[in-house]
Amino acid sequence: MDFSQATLSFAVLAPGVAFGVLAFLWLLGWVPTERVISRITGLTFSAAIFALAMIVWRLGATGDPSVVVTFGNWFAVHDYHFPLVLMADRLSLPFLGLTAVLSGLIGQFSATYLHRERGFLRFFLLLHLFAFGSLLAFAAGSFDLLVGGWEMVGITSVLLIAFFQQRTAPVENGLRVFAVYRACDIGLLLGVFAMHRWAGTASFAGGLPDLTGTQAAIVSLLLLLAAAGKAAQVPFSGWLPRAMEGPTPSSAIFYGAISIHAGAYLLLRVQPMIVQSPLASAFVIAIGVLTAIHGTIVGRASADAKTSLAYASLTQVGVVFVEIGFGWKWIAITHILGHATVRTLQFLRAPSMLHDYHAMHSAIGGELSPAGQHLEELFPEPVQLWLYRWALDRGHLDTILDRFVIHPLFRLSQIFARLDGLGLDQPVGQQEPVALSLQSSAGRGAD
Amino acid sequence: MPESALILSAVAIGIPWLAAILAVVTGRQSRVIGIAAASACVLASGILLHAAPPGVSLKEALMVLYSCLAMLAMLVLPRRDSNPGTIAGMLFVLGSTLLAYSTENLLILVAAWILTTVPFFRTQWFGARTWRPRVGLLLSSIALALAIGLIAADGGAMSIDRLRDQSPGGMAVFWLLVVAVIFRKGICPAHAWVADAAEGGPAIPTALLLNGHFGALLVAKLIVPLFPHAAQNLFPVLSYLALATALYVAIRALTENSPRRLLAYLALSQSACILAGLESGTPEGMTGALVHWFVVTISTMGLFGILRLLEVRFGENLTASRHLGLAEHAPRLAVFFAIFGLALVGLPGTLSFCSQDLLIHGTLMSHPLTGLLLPPAIAMNAVSVFRLFARLFLGKRRTGFTVMADALPRERWILAAGVLFVVLGGLFPNAIVSLGASVRGVAGPVASASVSSRRAP
Question: What is the reported pTM?
Fold first, then answer.
């Protein structure tokens, strides 16, 4: 293992090791102070940023296109292998850098923001786990390993949405988000299986698996399902406002920066495959366009700052999907980097937005002119009203999902429960009413 | 079998039975007796595993696993439940299960099969309130006894080794064995007894019974080696049933609010995945099944153990219909529950991530269409696990409880050991994955034949 390989391994593993050690010692009874936690966090992410900077410097100096670290197979059975390959190339390095820098930044911000908050340790543990998951997903040299990081990001996201666990709304919203994530991750699992089946490998360290046109289209569409779920694209956008229940720093890094762009990263990684299939490209573009329109309309009717910002993020990610669909890879990467940075700042400033506005009003000696309103005024009034109603219900996406997926599934479950009770004097177990299924009609997010 | 191995097996099987008698006779220090006996089993099984040649160490590995599981159960058992009768019953089940794992004789196997069920027929011991668990266990025992009886009537030997590839007794025996698997494993439509047993019986001993995985044992030890040709042609039927069970029970769990019943459905759905993997005939599926066997065993015991600890602390009327906020009172139990729960459904970094990866690949490889049922079933199980965790542990803190009731040191250390197993197993899975060769060795020709036929494009 040469210097660059060791450095990449260190950068990816550092937050994971910090999480593992802190969590295990806590389980055995140790409770670290806030100062110790924030010092460990600062040290971990500073070291990770330094390590990534060294890799960039080495790649620049040597002219190598990438650093690849092969640890062999995590496990192997017959002719199926799970390769442990880390890779930092021109696509993954910007994402790795973004993750390390923003995680460190959020760590420093949160040390003050969450001072004396119940769950301080829990937040930092989850931040480390999230950073490890993200770094693993972005540095993975195979789709198998990417799945591991991808799912870690999903679970930490859900646990942070339910961070304020004393209230039921965040908890139930977390459950809803978890359900959407798991449903969409089926696409990723099947896509990876399809690659193994057709190409014999899911590794992309030496180039994407070799697939025919139809196979590439099927794999691309399966991965698109996973990417759309993670990036809250239409028709899965309903979970995004629910996710705003979490603490602001976690909303910033998840839904302003890293997690929301993980889907775009996945599509960028398989972009040659998408370009190979006009059908997949058309789907990516269509979903992106629909999401951008949906996000901008719904965002205008959102009553709170974080939800407005979340929909603004959604709009931009929709545009990124369009760029990917058209094959404009570097425009998409640049767009993501700029968007993630600005949006993180906006989210972090959201709690003091009123203060900021007052400062601006004082500075200019009046109110800021409202932006964007003229667009709605172009429509006739009945259309404006319809759009307003549509935006208030967030495009009816949750309602559609409830009516056509969740409620039928719960009714089926209740039929099974009645079948299970046959032959007994009284019904078995305790049944959840359909109306409460995954809080379909209640707890619609931060507002 | 070498003489030393025979002696060690006898020690591993005999000590729990003797200890059971001792616990009942003395009526004192029963937990200490139970832990000492389980430790002796772990030691004896460990030596057997160490001495076993690589590639043929399946039964020894299962003996170590089950002995460790029994020790975990003894340690996590609340003081309220730790009476001589319960400890003796658990030791009796331990000895009988080890006997079933270690024997190569059909008559001893059927005897051990029946012995493990005996404590669950008596309501005063481990019996459930409803009749279905007793009927389920009884029918499975009758089916197996009939099958063995037919083999004996056929004039065949009683040694599994000598009957290998012989299809003794013909299709009647094959189908009787399948029926025994269906009832014992709780495959649809014979699944309801498992949830009844978990809800109406003692939680930890019931988890011990379910985690014997006798259905899977029968498939791996008897059906596949004895009936390779029938297995190759007719196994898809059982495989479809297992996959359907995994999905059916996962859907059923979505609206269940009784924590014990919900955990039973999750255990059942995940156990069905083991069967589906074994029946896939692919090396990935069979290895995944074995690894998943380990995961399900440890995770479900951890979950049932934690649930019982919560019942002892907060009352037995726990429900998932509202948020109980127990994490405020028991934060470490909450974390242990979350880890075991998510480990059961494929949390990355745990052993189940590896096992489910292999299972999905194996089942999809052999059954590209019906195998598609597995990922949705696992996804729904994950949602149910998280729902149960959220409802039990999150939400507004209850004011009725005045004492802090987090895990005691004894519970904390043993649950931490369980967590370490699933996490370290996930980080370094090769030690357990390599045992998959043993399953494939047992399956032998059927695996290779079915793999080659099913993999043909």
Answer: 0.92
